[in-house]
Design brief:
16 helices; 79% helix; Growth Hormone, Chain: A; mainly alpha
Length: 400
């Protein structure tokens, strides 16, 4: 089965382009762009980096708690309308960010940025693909994941340039407004208008007629295994990225050398995402996800045990492959195992776990580092956690 749902009948290639655009415009709500504002925010708002981190933690956790509800709304109104509504919300988040004057208002801005950009639009773009594709869903998710690598390679540099030339307040509005305009264009002209089958009954297809709702999915073991894998991957990758410069500084690497490892990560992640999408359409998800978690643990451990320039690039490349392979497999597995009728809510629950993991992990890593005096302990703990979760991948089987 190549597609599921009838929708407005737009060609599949057009829908894919719309979803890729939607994924690209999540950049203003992603950590890799928000982090470019930290220095300017600290100086302008007279907030310490610790207070900035706390505001980001609170805003991100609050947004995570909303994502399951966002997914339920997406099930009712469809991904096209969700992307449109969230794009308008992203523009509003940019205005809130631009107007921030202290801790409370900045926390609210972070919440809105993470809820709309990193949360709702990302969820809706994946939801749209799951409603439209089946046999090639892994490849479509691979393309969607590759768009993130493109955003990582381009948008932070644009953000830094705008902040340097026009100030952080202008940059906040410019980035979110332009992203919102692209999102509205994708919503209006590219994404299917109605993902639900028109006739019901036998026309619905297996992806609709044999679907779990969120409560039913939660009663299966495989749901919680998949949720744990999503949360762990988001937590480990975000913690490493957030603390990468001080982690590599412990082994004598300069800031410039540490920054170059991001390119290694992005390149490896892009290749693994595209290849992983093809593999996810042909192989069972259990070995793919197990391999992803083993590589995730290996990459975290290598940052500690293999010091020096080559070691840091190998470690970041390994993490990129792990993240790319996992990202290309998680989404199709959720859709294929639990069906499409309630896919938005189920995908939202996975998004809640991922965002919560990415919010807590940098703070927890810093706490362990403060107590031990080195990043070695938290990195090795990440490695052990990932390998332990890899052993659970044998439980990943299609639920009945």
């Amino acid at each position: 089965m190549g597609t599921t749902g009838t929708g407005a009948g737009r060609p599949g290639a057009v829908v894919v382009v719309g979803c890729l655009i939607a994924m690209f415009i999540t950049a203003p709500g992603q950590t890799f762009v928000i982090s470019t504002f930290s220095g300017a925010l600290s100086g302008s708002l007279d907030l310490t980096l610790e207070r900035l981190g706390l505001a980001y933690l609170i805003g991100t956790l609050a947004s995570a708690l909303c994502l399951t509800g966002v997914g339920r709304v997406a099930d009712r109104i469809g991904p096209r309308r969700m992307i449109g509504v969230a794009s308008v919300g992203l523009a509003g988040a940019g205005l809130a960010f631009q107007s921030a004057g202290g801790f409370a208002s900045l926390t609210l801005a972070f919440f809105l940025l993470r809820l709309t950009g990193q949360g709702a639009i990302s969820l809706a773009s994946s939801h749209a693909l799951a409603l439209r594709f089946d046999a090639t869903l892994g490849r479509m998710e691979g393309l969607r994941g590759g768009t993130v690598a493109l955003a990582i390679a381009t948008v932070p540099q644009l953000s830094v340039a705008l902040i340097a030339s026009h100030g952080w307040r202008f940059a906040a509005v410019a980035l979110t407004a332009s992203a919102a305009a692209l999102g509205l264009f994708a919503s209006a002209f590219l994404i299917d208008q109605d993902p639900h089958p028109a006739g019901g009954g036998e026309d619905e297809g297996e992806g609709w007629s044999h679907s779990f709702d969120l409560a039913g999915a939660r009663r299966t073991v495989v749901f919680w295994v998949l949720i744990a894998l999503v949360a762990a991957q988001a937590a480990i990758v975000t913690a490493v990225h957030f603390h990468l410069l001080p982690i590599l500084a412990e082994s004598g690497a300069s800031a410039a050398e540490a920054a170059r490892t991001y390119m290694t990560y992005a390149g490896a992640g892009l290749a693994a995402t595209l290849l992983g999408g093809v593999l996810a359409d042909r192989l069972r998800p259990a070995p793919l996800l197990g391999t992803s978690m083993v590589l995730l643990g290996l990459g975290a451990a290598l940052l500690e045990v293999w010091t020096g320039g080559l070691g840091s690039h190998v470690a970041m490349g390994t993490l990129g492959v792990a993240q790319g392979l996992g990202a290309a497999t998680h989404g199709p597995t959720l859709a294929r195992f639990f069906g499409r009728r309630h896919h938005g809510a189920i995908r939202g629950a996975a998004g809640t776990a991922a965002v919560a993991g990415s919010a807590v992990a940098p703070w927890a890593t810093a706490e362990v580092m403060e107590r031990t005096g080195t990043f070695g302990a938290p990195l090795l703990m990440m490695g052990l956690l990932a390998v332990a979760l890899a052993m659970l991948c044998g439980l990943i089987q299609r639920p009945q």
